[in-house]
Amino acid sequence: MKISFSEADEAFRREVAGWLADNLCGEFETLRFRGGPGDEHSFPEERKAWERKLAEGGWTCVGWAPEHGGRGLSINQQVIFHEEYARAGGPGRMGHIGEGLAGPTIAAFGTDDQKRRLLPGIVAGTEFWCQGYSEPAAGSDLANVKTRAVLENGQWRISGQKVWTSLAHESEWCFVIARTEAGSVGHQGLSFLLVPMHQPGITVRPIEQLTGTSEFNEVFFDEALTDADNILGAPGDGWKIAMALLGFERGVSTLGQQMLFQNELEEIIQIARTNGAARDPLLRQRIAEAWGGLRILRYNSLRMLSGAQDGGLRREAMIYKLCWANWHVALGKLAMDVLGPDAELLEDGPYQLGRLQSMFLFSRSDTIYGGTNEIQRNIIAERALGMPREPRVRA
């Protein structure tokens, strides 16, 4: 694990910071610090234009291999890019699911033809992806997927429903876990399909959240079609590929996520200094605990990144979701306590929430999405520690 950078790395840091200072301005100035979790509905077209601007500068998919259109940056340089991006207030990435999840998975498991067809649009910032995992009866229990796909006349015919699909209404493609083997249960018989979103058999319905926003959606597949060769791996490989994708999710972008957390913490500290909350010893102690907790998250991420980035879930990666989710929920509570009575006031009308108010409300979901805390603890116990499953007792 490395916790410092070489002079060459620091020179690269200056290059990244300089490019962002020169380009995150003018027409893109309004995007600074916008579009993150709880704010993903904001400025979608402008953020798509920003993706294309990043691509022009060679700042999309920076960790991908050059043969896939990336820059092949070292882990250190990828960490620096994500940190500087967040520090500069770079907007939430419209292409993060394609760049961080779909692309690396296609690169690892796809055919040469799939890589040729699908990776360039992600690199160019012109094609966006969403994730078709969760269903009404299969959230954390992904093996309970009911969406089905049948191969007919050279096409997969897909029927079912996905839910909590981030930015489905802005996406050209969705990777879908579907049951392709009749009568299969659990992990067996699942396949990983790549599905074009713009077709008559797909309906996207927004889900209004506590914040009044709707970046999440329900997606209904009514005999939607995708070509037979839009399957990643072989039929039945869906569970293996889905788990590898979750490994990529615990990758280098976690350091960028922590810089966003750092921005939130710094805003809380500034407010505490301004409104006098910093004089409260209990609030000072909680601020110190938040600062220390964020450093621990960083060091654990560096441990995660010290190994191979091949989609495997190392022990350090298995604890990450549980740790950051609990930390962020506590930060949301701290923000409201530091704001004091101002936390109860809306800015200009219904749902006109301040940034920290939105963060507090959205953070309530952190311990649920991406695998609930309970599921995360099961993963740690069974896969990291090798503990046996508790046998089910029938009544």
Describe this structure as you would to a colleague.
The chain has 395 residues and is α+β, with helices and mostly antiparallel strands. It has helices spanning 7-23, 44-56, 75-87, 96-109, 112-124, 238-249, 253-275, 281-305, 315-318, 320-339, 355-363, 373-384, and strands spanning 129-132, 148-152, 155-162, 173-179, 190-196, 202-206, 217-227, 231-232. The chain is globular. The mean pLDDT is 90. The protein is built from twelve helices and eight strands. A hairpin with a 2-residue loop joins strand 2 (148-152) and strand 3 (155-162). The strands form two sheets. The chain has a four-stranded mixed beta sheet. The chain has a four-stranded antiparallel beta sheet with strand order 2-3-7-6, with no helix packed on it.
Describe the global form.
Answer: globular
The class by helix and strand makeup works out as alpha+beta
Helix run count: 12
Most strands sheet: 4 strands, mixed
Report the radius of gyration as a whole number of Å. 21 Å
Beta-strand proportion: 5-15%
Uncertain regions spanning at least 5 consecutive residues: none
* Helix-strand sequence: HHHHHEEEEEEEEHHHHHHH
Oligomeric state of the chains present here? single chain
Tell me the distance between the termini: 49 Å
Helix content: 40-55%
Overall average residue pLDDT: 90
Widest beta sheet: strand line-up: 1-4-5-8
